[in-house]
């Protein structure tokens, strides 16, 4: 099989330890160099400090790597957007051609599941894009959440998306959307969206119980745990929403479509806000790493 687990991750999975998957598109397409590499390495460090085993996932020379080395992470950050962004439909070609590939939420879930990893921490998921009723632009992340058995911990979805439609699709596909100590869907840079999650989770132990119940019921598919950005790093909703609107307008004028949309918007928003949105983005991923690892620890806690 064209999959390689690093020895620590392989042993962790075998022994039922809290292994936490991390994606590589956030490194190559989600943040600029060198902050992308610094963030990726710090996130791994936070997973470790909380007692987990980090497994950053990407594709190197046609091999799905589950647990990249520091050097490999550095290389992903440096090569950036020149590495293809790989979704489910791209996987066979990237493997056959022995290329490099940055894994999105969808493909990180696929590889994590192949490697036996249940928990996956990231920043934000893809969803239904604004105007999707005309463009049909709905992220493959939603379909993957419907079918692949991985729990994703994120800070909700960016308001570059139509959050209301995103929730509708997740409901149709049977994906539980849970709020970590919140009843409201967080909108990435902000703690609130005006939309409700399906259920609120009071702590990591309760989150772990929901994951266990879904697996014991044999219900295929993912679970989405949304964790709001810490108050001190959250942005002013009116300001960030105005920036997002400008960035989408610019994207439409430039005729940017398909898989280029999300990376364009992420980069443009970071540019317009100076360092502010990037700093918020980094902080929310740190927070997700801490919470996600605590949930994984509860899930794998040995009952005595
Ligand atoms: N949203 C973010 N940061 C990201 C992404 C989304 O706030 O880095 C990345 C993730 O890898 C996600 C992908 O899976 O973009 C979604 O792309 P698309 O919309 O083309 O499906
Ligand atoms: Mn898309």
Set down the secondary structure blueprint.
Elements: E1 3-5, H1 7-14, E2 19-22, H2 25-28, H3 35-49, E3 53-60, E4 63-66, H4 70-79, E5 85-86, H5 91-96, E6 102-103, H6 105-115, E7 119-121, H7 132-135, H8 140-147, E8 151-154, H9 163-172, E9 177-180, E10 199-201, H10 204-216, E11 223-226, H11 237-254, H12 261-272, H13 276-300
Parallel strand pairs: 1-4, 2-3, 2-7, 5-6, 7-8, 8-11, 9-10, 9-11
Antiparallel strand pairs: 3-4
This protein binds pseudouridine-5'-monophosphate and manganese (II) ion.
Describe the structure.
It is a single chain. The protein is α/β, with parallel strands linked by helices and 304 residues long. The chain folds into 2 domains: 1-117, Indigoidine synthase fold, CATH 3.40.1790; 121-304, Indigoidine synthase fold (3-Layer(aba) Sandwich), CATH 3.40.1790. The protein is built from 13 helices and 11 strands. It has helices at residues 7-14, 25-28, 35-49, 70-79, 91-96, 105-115, 132-135, 140-147, 163-172, 204-216, 237-254, 261-272, 276-300, and strands at 3-5, 19-22, 53-60, 63-66, 85-86, 102-103, 119-121, 151-154, 177-180, 199-201, 223-226. Strands 1-4-3-2-7-8-11-9-10 form a 9-stranded mixed sheet, sandwiched between helices. Strands 5-6 form a two-stranded parallel ribbon. A hairpin with a 2-residue loop joins strand 3 (53-60) and strand 4. Helix 10 (204-216) packs across helix 13 (276-300) and helix 11 (237-254) crosses helix 12. The radius of gyration is 18 Å and the shape is globular. It starts with a strand and ends with a helix. It binds pseudouridine-5'-monophosphate and manganese (II) ion.
């Amino acid at each position: 099989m064209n999959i390689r687990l690093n020895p620590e991750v392989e042993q962790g999975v075998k022994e039922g330890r809290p292994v936490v998957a991390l994606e590589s598109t956030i490194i190559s397409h989600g943040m600029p160099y060198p902050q992308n590499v610094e963030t990726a390495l710090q996130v791994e460090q936070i997973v470790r400090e909380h007692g987990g085993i980090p497994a950053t996932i990407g594709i190197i020379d046609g091999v799905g790597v589950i647990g990249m080395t520091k050097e490999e992470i550095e290389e992903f950050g440096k090569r950036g957007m020149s590495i293809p962004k790989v979704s489910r439909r791209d996987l066979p070609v990237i493997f056959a051609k022995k290329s490099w590939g940055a894994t999105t939420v969808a493909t990180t879930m696929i590889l994590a599941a192949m490697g036996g990893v249940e928990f996956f921490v990231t920043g934000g998921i893809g969803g239904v894009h604004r105007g999707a009723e005309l463009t049909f632009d709905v992220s493959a992340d939603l379909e993957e959440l419907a079918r692949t058995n991985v729990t994703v911990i994120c800070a909700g979805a960016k308001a570059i998306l139509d959050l209301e439609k995103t929730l509708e699709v997740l409901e149709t596909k049977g994906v539980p959307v849970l709020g970590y100590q919140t009843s409201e869907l967080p909108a990435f840079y902000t703690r609130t969206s005006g939309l409700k999650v399906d259920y609120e989770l009071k702590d990591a132990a309760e989150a772990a119980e929901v994951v266990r119940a879904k697996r014991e019921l044999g219900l295929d598919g993912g679970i989405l745990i949304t964790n709001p950005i810490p108050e001190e790093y959250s942005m002013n909703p009116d300001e960030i929403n105005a920036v997002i609107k400008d960035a989408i307008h610019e994207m439409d004028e430039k005729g940017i479509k398909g898989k280029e949309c999300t990376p364009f918007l992420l980069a443009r928003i970071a540019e317009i806000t100076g360092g502010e949105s990037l700093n918020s983005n980094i902080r929310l991923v740190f927070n997700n790493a801490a919470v996600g690892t605590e949930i994984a620890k509860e899930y794998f806690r040995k009952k005595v």
